[in-house]
């Protein structure tokens, strides 16, 4: 399979490129400098020249707080870009897998969000990601949309990804104990993204590691257990105690109605993923 991966400098893109290469694919991984997905002329020129079998879109603007002051940048990357890819993939008859987010839900539901729940995004970032979903679906009926969340992995710069490094240095951290999600290891997500590309079945999938959801504090304690770090370095705090420009869903746990029905096995338990992640340090 000839796979084009956008946003090649990002954590998920790097994991996806590595996994696809290990599966024997011809991989073309492009950064924003190589392919600006917000520019449809650039997308059309690039994809028409490369002629991939499938595109896995890992490009995104993910600065949740920064999006509040940079709405145009957020919408360019998260809505215009996916739409452009959807249009051109349709034109060249290529598959498309694009990544969305658990933030499309407002977090007021106490259980697991599945595809039956209506998205109600709060904040610019969340609204831009849902807009991207809607535009992709309207532009290309073949497209596959993947909602994921709480993604952590090698080379990541988000809080979940840097926890092991901080704790190894003996640095104290605070972790929210009243917000919940379903952690997702980038390496496991990468495998599922390729499986979905190969399945080529238009749908919206929720992709996370299996196991019960957790809080940021619970995740931090699991990192301590897996990495042999001192749990006393972790202090639980309420989300309301942090001053952040953008709203976050208090609960964004995800579950998928379709994956197992289509023969896709559950991803490993997130606690197993944390062990693998910490063991690589």
Strand percentage lies at 15-25%
Helix amount, in percent?
25-40%
Would you identify the CATH H-level superfamily of the domain at 2-157 and 183-210 and 253-264? NAD(P)-binding Rossmann-like Domain
Under the CATH scheme, the architecture of the domain at 2-157 and 183-210 and 253-264 is: 3-Layer(aba) Sandwich
- The rounded distance between the terminal residues' Cα atoms is 32 Å
For the secondary structure, the number of strands is 12
Net shape? globular
Q: For this entry, what is the oligomeric state of its chains?
A: single chain
CATH class of the domain at 2-157 and 183-210 and 253-264: Alpha Beta
Q: Any idea of the CATH topology of the domain at 2-157 and 183-210 and 253-264?
A: Rossmann fold
- The averaged pLDDT comes out at 96
What is the helix/strand order? EHEHEHEHEEHEEEHEEHEH
The largest sheet has its strands arranged as 2-1-3-4-5-10
User: Which structural class do the helices and strands define?
Assistant: alpha/beta
State the helix count.
8
What are the segments in which pLDDT stays under 50 over at least 5 consecutive residues? none
Major sheet details: 6 strands, parallel
Radius of gyration: 18 Å
């Amino acid at each position: 399979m000839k796979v084009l991966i956008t946003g090649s400098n990002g954590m998920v893109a790097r994991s996806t490129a590595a996994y696809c290469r290990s599966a024997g694919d011809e991989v073309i991984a492009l950064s924003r400098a190589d392919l600006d997905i917000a520019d449809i002329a650039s997308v059309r020129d690039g994809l028409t020249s490369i002629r991939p079998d499938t595109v896995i879109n890992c490009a995104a603007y993910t600065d949740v707080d920064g999006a509040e002051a940079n709405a145009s940048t957020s919408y360019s990357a998260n809505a215009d870009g996916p739409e452009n890819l959807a249009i051109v993939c349709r034109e060249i008859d290529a598959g498309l897998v694009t990544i969305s987010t658990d933030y499309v839900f407002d977090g007021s539901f106490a259980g697991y969000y599945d595809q039956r729940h209506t998205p109600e995004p709060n904040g610019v970032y969340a609204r831009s990601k849902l807009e991207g979903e809607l535009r992709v679906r309207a532009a290309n009926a073949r497209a596959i949309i993947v909602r994921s969340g709480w993604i952590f992995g090698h080379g990541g710069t988000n809080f979940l990804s840097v926890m092991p490094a901080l704790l190894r240095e003996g640095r104290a951290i605070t972790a929210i104990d009243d917000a919940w999600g379903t952690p997702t290891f980038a390496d496991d997500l990468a495998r599922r993204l390729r499986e979905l590309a190969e399945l080529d079945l238009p749908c919206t999938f929720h992709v996370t590691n299996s196991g019960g959801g957790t809080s940021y504090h619970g995740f931090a304690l699991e990192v301590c257990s897996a990495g042999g770090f001192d749990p006393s370095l972790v202090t639980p705090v309420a989300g309301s105690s942090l001053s952040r420009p953008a709203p976050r869903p208090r609960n964004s746990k995800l579950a998928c109605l379709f994956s197992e029905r289509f023969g896709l096995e559950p991803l490993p338990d997130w606690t197993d993923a944390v062990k693998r992640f910490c063991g690589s340090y």
